[in-house]
Amino acid sequence: MKINLYLGFQRPIIQGNKKCIYINADMEPTFPRANKIYTATSTVPIQPIYEDIFICKEALKICQNFEVFRDEAMKVYKNLKTIKGDLFFEDIVADPKDWTKLYLRWYNEIDPIGEKMCPRSAAIIKSMPRVRIAMFSVLRPGAKILPHAGPYRGCLRLHMGLITPNSDDCFISIGDRRYSWRDGHVVLLDDTYTHYVQNNTNKHRVILFCDIDRPMNFLGRLTHEIMISSVCKHTTRQNSG
What we know:
Elements: E1 3-8, E2 11-14, E3 19-24, H1 32-41, E4 49-50, H2 57-64, H3 66-76, E5 81-82, E6 99-106, E7 109-110, H4 112-117, H5 119-126, E8 131-139, E9 144-148, E10 155-163, E11 170-174, E12 177-180, E13 186-189, E14 195-199, E15 205-213, H6 218-230
């Protein structure tokens, strides 16, 4: 199936001739029907933040390998490429230098550049097929990410602090909650809630950022797999540029 994928004001990202998917400029969900299924079939509550990482076995494994991720991120985080301009990250950061990234996986594919730069981290991610996206995410001092909402509820977003200010002045505000990163601490989020980020410190914030399959019953998992196989594989990211 060929797909037209549009972002913002219907600017084409991937061209085809069969079907169009819209990512609305006003941040309305891209997949409303699928998201309703995920909401109804989720085996964990629908809420902005989950600090109980036992709901997701992948979160436990990631937490147990904190030192591997931290040590490899330490070697590369000052020389990464901007995330601004990537799909879903077009207009949510003002200065391209504020937010940089290194992709380790994008929808089941291990990124070859990420694997070369951080082989041990990539190997850990590769061992967990339910981790659909993984990257090192870096905010420089003073950086701000503008309010936005993710389009897709089929995954939970994981953040693990790697090299952080360890300060309440560096935080994510999501729904009616606020969370500040700490080195080695893991949190799970539902990024379909409106959220924004501020690093009001003089230090970089480096985290591991992952999307992991939401715990759901059979119908939810089936819907999610169909979406992953038919839609998400047509989206792309690059570590270059």
